[in-house]
Amino acid sequence: MQKIFIGRKQEVDLLKKAFKPVNIPTRSLLFIVGPSGIGKTALSKKVLEELRKESNIITIYIDFGRTYSNLQEALQDLVRGFEKHVLDYKSAFEKFMEKLRSMKNKISEISTPIVSLRPFEEQPPPLQFFQDLIDSFVNELSECGYLATIVIDELQNFLRFTNWSAWGLVKFFMSQQEKQGNVQFVFTTSDYIFRKRILSDRIPVEYIDTFYLGEMTKEDSIELLEEIMKRASINKNIEHKMIENIVDQIGGVPALLYNLINYSVKYEMSINDVLRYFEKRVYEDLVEKLKAIRKSTIIDHGTYYEDAGWSKVKNYLVKLADSPISISEINMDIFSEIDKLVDSNILQYACKEYLGIYKWNKEKSGGMCYLDVIAPSNRLYYRALKDYVSKNFGA
Ligand SMILES: Nc1ncnc2c1ncn2[C@@H]1O[C@H](COP(=O)(O)OP(=O)(O)OP(=O)(O)O)[C@@H](O)[C@H]1O
Ligand SMILES: [Mg+2]
Hints:
By secondary structure, the chain is of the alpha/beta class. It has three domains: 9-213, Rossmann fold, CATH 3.40.50.300; 218-276; 287-359 and 370-392, Arc Repressor Mutant, subunit A (Orthogonal Bundle), CATH 1.10.10. Helix content is 53%, strand content 12%. It contains 15 helices and eleven strands. It has helices spanning 9-19, 40-54, 71-86, 94-111, 126-144, 155-159, 166-180, 192-200, 218-231, 240-250, 254-266, 271-297, 308-320, 335-343, 379-392; strands at residues 29-33, 57-63, 147-153, 183-189, 208-213, 299-300, 305-306, 325-326, 347-350, 366-368, 373-376. The protein has a six-stranded mixed β-sheet, sandwiched between helices. Strands 8-11-9 form a three-stranded antiparallel β-sheet. The radius of gyration is 23 Å and the shape is globular. The structure holds adenosine-5'-triphosphate and magnesium ion. Residues 40-41, 65, 153, 188 line the site of magnesium ion (MG). Adenosine-5'-triphosphate binds at residues 3-8, 34, 36-42, 65, 190, 224, 254-255, 258.
């Protein structure tokens, strides 16, 4: 089925500028962040598509968007990503294409399951592979006078196999950008902890630009939901008012809108029943994760238990039921608990201006900003949280 792309007009325009290499060698790396399923991948692909249409920029999309069971799989995706996009410029990239071919052979050697006679150390470490590949691409790019934008989706999945420091990572990509200013690297990730790790490695903030993507606007969410329903042939007797109502409850997260309809088709349930079911599941998930966090905050003094950590978490949860919380308001000693909630997809680090959960985004649904608040990861968790707070803390 052909992919549809709805809305996000301002974001596409903004990112088109940010994706373009501008021949100024000091440009910073661009990170696109936002909760899972919000549309970071779809948006980046859309921007690349637009860039390709209207300029001579070579666009490369590298997909590390799945979890890999071994390094070989991840390297294969890396090579495939380059191969697919550079093929159109084959004649300009002869040396590089040759490199890709030889890399493919090396990768298949890594996978050889039988015990190799060669000493293990002789196999090139993954980072060398990775750096070598990018380095030779950028060099050849300079020779042939093209510009390139390289989007690397979910880089952290690749980095699982390496022990590269965050600073090493930034330095490497920066050095590539600094060669000629003819390449721009963009990273998309839903893993906030990854971005946080990079920033906490004493990296000057000007090296990293962050683009936060929030919920789609209400109009676009309605349009998307209607389109998804049309494609699944289930829009027969549903009034616009009801669609609006559903969108108000689910919010502007495209993946959730798709899931809602897919689920309804697959299990032959009404959309409202699926919604109730999702709400129930999200609530149960919230209760379970909070229980685990509460357990981890208890300090056992032998004769008595101290539960100070939990009471702090509790205060934040109560606040979150009303509004996003500014990161500067959060106690340092509670960050590990917040990170756990972010890691398990209940909360997110976000930009207040583009969040779209407590009230709908108007026109703008994403932009450059420093993440300034924590908030629920979507409207389902927001309502579950409200529910939890009123049931458990008597608010
Ligand atoms: N603007 C849009 N119009 C139509 N469909 C969209 C739009 N944005 C996203 N989608 C669809 O919604 C789903 C989720 O989007 P996508 O995979 O881009 O999210 P993501 O933020 O990259 O998520 P993750 O963090 O899990 O990688 C996909 O099926 C995608 O095609
Ligand atoms: Mg993605």
